[in-house]
Amino acid sequence: MLGYILRRLAIAIPVLLILVVLSFILMYTAPGGPFNSDRPLPPEVMANIEAKYGLDQPFWKQIATYVWNVTTQFDFGPSFQYKNRTVNDIIAQGFPVTLTYGFWSFVIAVTFGISLGVAAAIRQNTWLDYTAVGISIGAQVLPNFVMAPLLIMFFTLYLGWLPGGGWEGGQWNYVILPVTALATSYMASIARITRSSMLEVLNTNFIRTAQAKGLPKQQIIVRHAMKPTLMPVLSYLGPAFVGMITGSVLIDVFFSTGGIGQYFVNSAFNRDYSVIMGITILVGALTIMFNLVVDLLYAWIDPKIRY
Amino acid sequence: MLLNRNAVSQLEDVPIEAVKGRSLWADARARFFRNKAATASLFVLIALGLFALFGGLLAQYERDFVDFTLIGSNAYKGVPSIETGHYFGTDSSGRDLYARVVQGTGISLMVGIVGALVAVVVGTLFGASAGYFGGKIDNVMMRFVDILMSIPFMFVLILMLVIFGRSIFMLFVGIGLISWLDMARIARGQTLSIKNKEFVEVAVATGVHPLRIILRHVVPNLLGIVIVYATLLIPSLIIFESFISFLGLGVQEPNTSLGALISEGAEQMQYGLTWQLYFPIAFFVITIFAFFFVGDGLRDALDPKDR
Amino acid sequence: MTLKSILTATTAVSLIAVGSAAWADGHATHPVTGETLASDQSFTYRDLDESPSIDPGTAEDSAGGDILRDLFEGLMNQAPDGTLVPGVATSFASSDDGLVYTFTLRDNAKWSNGDTVTAGDFEYAWKRAASPELASPYSWFIELMSLENASEVIAGDVDPSELGVTAIDDTTLEVRLTQPLPYFAQMTTHFTTFPVHQATIEAHGDDWTKPGNMVSNGAYVLSEHVPQEKLVRVRNESYWDNDATIIDSVTSLIINDEAVALTRYLAGELDRTDVPAGQFPRLQAEYPEQAVSVPLACSYYYMFNLRDGAPEEIQDANVRKALSLAIDRDIITENVLAGGQESAYTFTHWATAGFETPNIPMASMTQEERNAMAKELMAEAGYADGGLEIDLVYNTSESHKSVAIAVSQMWKQTLGVETTLANQEWQTFLEARSNGDYEVARGGWCADYNEASTFLDLMDSGSGYNDSKYVNAEVDALLAEAKTADNPQPNYDRVEEFIAQDTPIIPIYHYASVKMFAEDLKGWPFDNFQQNWYSRQLYKVAE
Lengths: 307, 307, 543
Hints:
Largest sheet of chain B: none
CATH architecture of the largest domain in chain C: Alpha-Beta Complex
Number of domains of chain B: 1
Number of strands of chain B: 0
CATH superfamily of chain B: MetI-like
CATH architecture of chain B: Orthogonal Bundle
Oligomer: heterotrimer
């Protein structure tokens, strides 16, 4: 097992390298550039800027320098958009924010999602099932850009209970609304996957055998049905967890939380090359890492799985 | 499940020859139509399709016709009314919302169905192959998915726009490119566990071709979770379409989609023009509920363990 | 307790709190107006986005400018009506040929660490802003000021020490120009010309703009800065005119979504926010004291692609003029935007200083007359029965979309022209526009300074901002002549007439700044055309 983990970690390096090169190519071929605006800069000003940020170098050299700086000094370079900040600054400031609201969203989405899904499955076609399905669909039809303004209108304007945005270092009253908005749709998906997975498991022979033996239902669910039920949920949770802790652009936009979620879209809009690369590598590394964790958990759930 | 169990017991009473005579698909169809919610939802979906195709005949106005006397006085003149012929009121540009909802429903149904189909076909086959073959092949295939999940996808879309120009077809390509990734992960996770089951081991021992094993033994056992995930994917793809259009690739004014209408409605909701959100979101809700129940019905109908 | 009674109780408590605070602080009154001041003098406003920089040398956007005018003080300031008043400089004199300016600085101006602000600080700041080493995107402003050697310094041909600015002594700054600029003194109110503290920059490098490091000479100092969330500045006790400052702390909150910002304003979290397009009439009816619209120095227009190889149809001036005539601007300004914008028939904003809007024939016609004339012109061009198809591109935004929808329908309903609308993401849009990859594109231009040439120079065939690629030798000559003319107005009239006749662009409307202001906030410089405001001019009155 240890050998497997090491092999997977070793392969992460070339994978990230491919990711870096691909993203670089995409970024540079896309129209526009970090210093284009509706007032084109005079050529001499542009020349200074390109020299400062190394954009006057040949393409392969830019990639090489970038990879060298990242690997040897963990230096992701200066932001092109924000003149006095480096990519390290931006991630160091924004990542803890999204990590906080993402973590709580994850905890809430998983707890409620799985409970709701299991409850719906073991009482299939009862009012409990219908309610759970109703809630999970309801949560899905209110996309974040509808949900977020609604939450703000209700809790900030009408009730005046919670601030309508900001982060203030993560004080609890600033965290509630972003977490609610982010957790809801994930919760809905987890509930639906759990419900369906549980239904299938309950229908398999070995559970039927257990039922036929007259084992108490609760025991069957907890001892036998739960683990296999979690397989597809886990597959979903790997990428979902990365999605949650790296935040969501809509959460940052609507609640002014200052997390890194907004940079996914904004840095691309601004063609802030170094920030795009920093974010891409962060997401790439987290994706690879959590997919490894998921694979290890598979083996724990189903000991027959060998890699 | 009750319905299906009855179905099974009924089938058991039928002479063997009769069962053999019916194909798997006919069998599944019969099960599907015994599920009332699924059948009803299928009709709802068909009705939505007909609405999208022919609903425009009922509209009193062209979907791009701007009534200049209504712009700016939407709040009292543009309200939904049978008398004015604006059944759903007008949008903020003074256009008939009914005609726009008709058109938006059509686009969004197509986006949802195409995206889900690509996800189901490509994602399932890719994931099942990776999981079944395992080892190095699995590692390479899944790291490929990791890379696609992490690259700045926005640039892919922008480049598609620049290279191929704007068209609905490109929108579907864009949707298709991203929709199958999570599905592949989920399918692979399940396959890891399925391939250790006796029926697969038996097939392997008897020398069945791997591709046949995947198609005949693995994929049918994946279908339950695959269909559920596909129904989860549909609403997010419908919303994602509005982001693609935001970049300039997809649906452009005066055409529209449910995603675009909902996002406009969400903005206007905060100014008190609530109907601009209610009508598109109502169609969105109906669509998603219908897909959910059809998915649930399909899952039960195709579940191999019930046979 | 029901919800309603809880609310009533809370209101009662807060009323008591406010009442007693006002009583406790009842003595504070405004020194000029005598109004009773509120005890809480904090001002919170919404910004759309994080500014790229709050270093005067590299700053580039107007929101950053708002922050910098609080943190730093330049040679001259703008009074609430936009006129020039002393800043760090108490006076200035220019030589007879207008090429040398000498500024006399006050001796009591202090940095927030107690150091005296000297002429040397300005010299350092200007040379730094122009230096290739800093590579500031706004270094072109130094070029715009026509400082001696500015272009050469930026191009790296000459050392920054050769730039035409010298501190004669601590309180005398000499500036040498390459051409006389009537509005030069106005330019010293711009943030690029603000002084910076050399020792701080040398000690902290790029980190000097962080709270705690930054040393500034304005009425406020930076106390907290969380990028993408908020920026807080508090009163600078060392500021020479600190006694006249009333607002104690200023907070700018980044709120990307304007509808959410409005909700938060209505919930009392903000003192100032933007009014979304189309919402002004409703808000004005509901909150007459709070919704305000004032002219803003920008023009909104559509441009035609006049390059060789661009589609043939729009190379016909009649077609272009017909399209311009068929746009009912009043519908766009009164119904679509409805925020006090003005219909535009000239490119230059009507409120530009010293500019008298010339009488363009189209402006005095009724829309029916315009439509009739448009149809005639189209018939002449051979499109009597429609048949013209046009691509219109704009960058993705709700309000650009609304305008484009309305315009395309006007063209369709009046002229039978079929318009294909296309929105593009900003950078893609810019590239398409500057490469001439469009037929009709949306444009917007904001004044760099308050004079008509800031708009009309775009029509110069050599201008880098002339995205239409409009070439007219007469216009070029008129613009060149206007630079040195005692009264450039006749030239400007002629250029505007050419624009109306040749229609390289269709002016559509002149911007307005449409905002909500908390009722207790006073002193806002509504008469300032560029909307350059200083927090130290503001105050809050007790209710």
